[in-house]
Amino acid sequence: MSVSGVNSANPALEEFEDVRTVESVSLTLTLDNGVIEKPKFELFRSRAFRVLKNGFWGFCSGEFEKEEGLKIARENVVYEGDSVVVEVSGKGSFELKPKIKHEDVSLEEKVEFLKEVEMRLKGENIVSTRVVYMENVRKVEYCDSCGSELSYSVPRTGVIIQAVAKEGDNMQFCSKRILKPAGYECVEQAFELAEEVVRILGDLLKAKLPPAGEMNVVMDPVLAGVFVHEAFGHAAEADHVLQGASVLAGKLGEMIAGENVTICDDPTLQEFGFYPFDDEGVRAEKRVLVENGTLVDYMHSRETAAKLNARPGNGRAQATLEPVVRMSNTYIEAGDYSFEELLEEAKSGVFLAGTRGGETNPATGYFQFSAQYGYLIENGELGEPVRDVALSGNTLEILRNIKLGDRVEFDPGFCGKAGQLVPVSDGAPFSLVRARVGGHG
Question: Domain spans of the chain?
C-alpha cells in the first residue's frame, strides 16, 4: 500500500469531509460445559459520514448513498466551534491474506475443534468449562475531501478458554486466549493453553493469600502489558491530554521514566491491534511515545494533531461510530534481564501473572490491578502459589525504577473507550517493580 507521509508541517484545515464504508462478517461458536450453543453469525454493513465546518462536526451513519449521507451530516453542523484537522491524503489498498481462510473450514470441523480443546480441560476438581471460537473479516473503504481513496481487508481469529475449579469452599477461575489478525491457522495454540489452564487451576486450589504491603513484584508479560496499556497508554492519548485529564500533560521532553524505558504504539505489528490505516485515512506507522525515559510523543487523531502540531494516525472507531484517539499494539521494549535474573534481583516478594481487571486514573497515575495468580519469591526463587492478589501503585514511580526482561510478549484484548470497543494488544517483557500488594476477595 502506498500512502503519502504525514508530519507536523501539514496544514490545518477548517473544512473537511470524509466517508467510511465498513463491512464486517463474524461468526462466534461457544461450547459451554460440553454443550454447543447456537452459532452466532453477524453481517454488518454501513457508512459513516463526517463534515467539519465552522469548527464544528456534523456526523451521520447509515446505509445512505454518499451524497445523501454527506448532506445529512452537513445539516448536523448546528453550531460553531474550534475544531480543525491535519491535512493528509493517501491512495492504496491492503489485504491481509490468511494461510487458512475461515470459509475453507466447515462449521462441523470448528465445533469438533472446540470439543477437542475442551477435552484438554478435563482434570481433578474442574467443575465448569467454556471454550469460545471467534472469527471476523473487516473490510473498510475510505475517501475524503483531501483526495484520499483507501481500502483494506483484515481477518481476525480467536479462541478464549475458561475453566473453574473447586475444592471445598475454595473456587478458582482461570482463562487464556488467542486473538490474532490471521486466519484459522492460529488456533492450534489453543491445546497448549488449555493444558496450562488446568495446571494453573491446580496450583490455585493449593494457593494461600499473599502477604500485604510494599514489596518487590515480578510481573509476567500479561500483567506488565496491562500496566503499560491501562496505566500509561490511556494517559498518552492526546484527547485526555487536551482535556487536562492526563498525568502526562505538559511533560513532553521531560524524563518521566528510567533511561532503560522505551514505550511504543505500533499498529503495523501483526498483533491483534493491527491496522494498515486508521479510521481517518492515515497510514499506520510505529509511534515512539517514551524514548530512553523521555516522553517524546502522544497518540493523535487528525484533530488533536492539528491542535498540538503533531502527527495523526491513532483515530479509531468501532463499526461506523465516530473515531477517537485509541491505542493499537502498545508495548514497552525489552531490557537485558533473564527471568531468573529478575527473580534474583527481587530476592523476596511475589511473582504475579495474568489479569482479572482493575482500574486506573490517567489524571493522577494511580492504578490498581488484580492478577490471575502468582507465586511467592523466596531467596530469588519461586515458592508457594498465591491467589486473589491485588497490585497498586503510581505509574510514573513504577516507570522510573522498573527493571525489564529480555523478551517482549503480547497479550490481545478489546479496549473500551467512549462506549466503543476496538481490538488491541499489550506487550511487555517480564518486569521487576516495587509496588503495593494486598489480597482481595
Answer: 12-206, 213-439
Instruction: Please tell me the distance from the alpha carbon of residue 268 to that of residue 35, in angstroms, as a whole number.
Output: 38
Determine the pLDDT at residue 11. Answer: 83
CA distances from 195 to 82, 117, 125, 200 (A): 55, 9, 14, 9
69 torsion bin: left (phi>0), alpha (psi -120 to 50), beta (else): alpha
- Measured at the CA of 227, the angle between CA 372 and CA 246, to 5 degrees, comes to 140
Residues 6+ positions from 148 with CB-CB distance below 8 Å: 18, 88, 89, 90, 91, 142, 281
pLDDT tens per residue, range 416-431:
999 999 999 999 999 9
AA identity, residue 191: F
User: Which residue intervals of 291-375 are DSSP H helices?
Assistant: 302-308, 339-346
Helices (H), 124-189: none
- 12-206 — its CATH code? 3.30.2290.10
Cβ contacts of residue 418 below 8 Å, gap of 6+? 321, 324
112 SS3 class: helix
Q: What is the pLDDT of residues 359-370, one digit of tens each?
A: 899 999 999 999
Residue whose C-alpha cell is 503519502:
4
